[in-house]
Design goal:
single chain, 262 residues, alpha/beta, Beta-carbonic Anhydrase, Chain A, 2 domains, five-stranded mixed sheet, globular, binds zinc ion
Length: 262
């Protein structure tokens, strides 16, 4: 009797062990499939400007309402990018302002965005060259120039701050936009002029890019890429989309101008 009970226990124990082994195998298999999938099948790159814009709009809406997904930040993503290279779907020229970290405000992760940050989101030789690399070598379908509210660089030009050295050369890229807005609204206070100058400065940077870059012109003419302006509100976190430059067709027809140094 005692022997029979003992066998029954042994059989019971064997069944438990087999169940545990089966569960473990299933877990290992799932992990293997998960990691294996990440290694061998990277997400397809977004090749359409409309899809790229929709991704950015959705990400910014998530960030503004505090519902971020923080995508593409884990070890699987890092490994995938290291193995298969980067395929960012948008290039963004934004300001260096610490309140406008591009990946955060669009709730994007590693390998999603090709970002150029410079005070006043100006476009000179280096910025144009970086965008050309993105368009030519990574076939990025969407380029954004992103200004922002309360921009210190634009405010400095509106207020007529006396800059010197390299800062002076940098703000010279912003001055035409400020002069344009001021001539349109000669009686407006500086405080009210600043948001208009921020928007005009975005358009001016887009104009500089089209004027200077043959690669960008070719991509725009061929419909391989879109260039869109936007302004980020540092308080509400919402991005206001300006669309393509209103004079894009004329700019594409005008003679190319040599790029300028900062
Ligand atoms: Zn700024």
């Amino acid at each position: 009797m005692s022997r029979k009970v003992c066998w029954s226990r042994v059989l019971h124990c064997d069944r438990e062990a087999a169940d545990r082994r089966a569960s473990l195998c299933l877990a290992v298999l799932s992990l293997f499939l998960l990691i294996g999938w990440g290694c061998t099948a990277p997400e397809p790159a977004i090749t359409d400007a409309k899809d790229a814009l929709a991704m950015l709009q959705a990400g910014n809406a998530r960030f503004a309402r505090g519902a971020e997904l923080h995508p593409h930040t884990d070890a699987i993503r890092r490994h995938e990018l290291a193995q298969h290279g980067q395929h960012p779907y948008a290039a963004i020229v934004g300001c260096s302002d610490s309140r406008v970290p591009v990946e955060i405000v669009f709730d994007q992760g590693l390998g999603d965005l090709f970002v150029i940050r410079v005070a006043g989101n100006v476009i000179a030789t280096d910025e144009a060259g970086t965008i050309e690399y993105a368009v030519e070598h990574m076939q990025i379908p969407l380029v954004i120039v992103l200004g922002h509210s309360n921009c210190g660089a634009v405010t400095a030009v509106v207020n007529g701050s006396h800059e010197h050295g390299s800062v002076l050369r940098l703000v010279e890229h912003i001055r035409p936009a400020v002069d344009q807005v001021r001539s349109r609204h000669p009686t407006l206070s500086e405080e009210k002029l600043i948001p208009l100058a921020v928007e005009q400065n975005v358009l001016h940077s887009m104009e500089d890019l089209i004027s200077q870059s043959g690669v960008v012109r070719e991509a725009l003419n061929a419909g391989r890429m879109q260039l869109v302006g936007a302004v980020y509100d540092i308080d509400t976190a919402l991005v206001r989309w300006l669309g393509p430059h209103p004079d894009q067709a004329q700019l594409l027809d005008s003679p190319i101008t040599p790029s300028t140094e900062h």
